[in-house]
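3.2 Worked example (two chains)
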Amino acid sequence: MVKNSCVDCGKQICEHSLRCVRCSNLFRFKDKKYEDLYGKEKAHILRKQSSLRIKGDKNPSKRKDVKLKNSLWHKGRSPGNKGKKYKDYMTEKQIKNCRIAQQNKNYKHSNEMKLKISKLCKGINNGFYGKKHTLENIERFRKNTILYIVNNPKFTETSIERKTKKFLEKLNIKFFHPYWINNIKHHYAADFYLPKQNLVIECDGDYWHRRPEIIKKDKTRNKEMKNVGYKVLRLWERDINNMSVEQFNERLNLCL
């Protein structure tokens, strides 16, 4: 039997065919989605099945023997693009996009691209669709957020906090800003803590701290802090903005 070669990969095939089975399937399904071939419902089922096939131990790349094989293969090798220039392994369009991204830091996506990205992240396309964080993870996220606020006050402080900070500095009062109160059930990062006076100062924004759920949270925290032995002073945004150093000092003395 006379043999022919595949027009794409060069593999030997029978004389009546142009492509091998693999290449013909790739050619047939090129630029097509599951939805175009099978419809929305079946496409959703097929995607779920394909994702289950590669989850956990079923994924070959997560097997120990495969990991070892890959690590041994990479050892002593240099990256593929080492010593090369963009033009050696990128198209002109890709090079142009890289140059734009490097030169223009304020580069923004077009409206069409934004729509594409938003569609990809909505509904069943979103990897987190129908899932929820565990209580342990939520608690871990809270702790990390508090630690970030405590360690980076410049990035998180508000205008009223800056003004209160200036008042305390003028009065030569030692303070911590912000301060993690972790010996209560609903632990959080307080705005200011005065160790000598054992006083917690909170600077409450007029909009946010008037919301019903936030009022409830604040009351709970106040109660818990007072039970542990802290004194609590809450100052509203409107009061801080119209306050002088003397007036601030009077409010402090009333709490002590």
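3.2.1 Second chain
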Amino acid sequence: MESKFYLVSCKDKEGGVEQIIETSERPQHYDGTEFYFSISPAYESVEELREKCHIHDKKCKECGGLIKLRWVDPLPKQLKEECLCHSCHIWSSRIPLYKGKDVVVVEGMYYTISKNIGNPNRVNTMFAGHGGRLFKIKRFGSEEIIECNNLWCGGDVPEIFKDRLKDNAEFVK
């Protein structure tokens, strides 16, 4: 009888959507045709893998990825109730903030505009976003130029959220 092993894997080094895969051999990172980035040990059943790795039995309703529940309370309960993986939970929580005055998306990158720190021409801004560098931002549909020396990058908006977190500003000189 052939043994089967189950592990959590991504199909590429960039992360991609995590999935549970079945293999008849102990996992290799490259099987000759596809790269598998193993992010869990191999288990003898899916149930054992879900239990030991704290993985919800449902998949994320946004990306289809695994919902890992190994987080500090109350996050595991929230992820289960929302049926979201951790990453999609974070991006979903940013959607309401996007409508406010403190968030811009420029060229697919999410930024939070925080209160300016000190004099932007001095060196006392070392704890500011981007080291206190001065940014000039113009929202689409407005002539106002926002000058900010405390801009925080929230990362590239994932493809599945780009329709809800669209570019709404640009950097100007």
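3.3 Remarks
The chain has three domains: 1-53, 56-99, 101-171.
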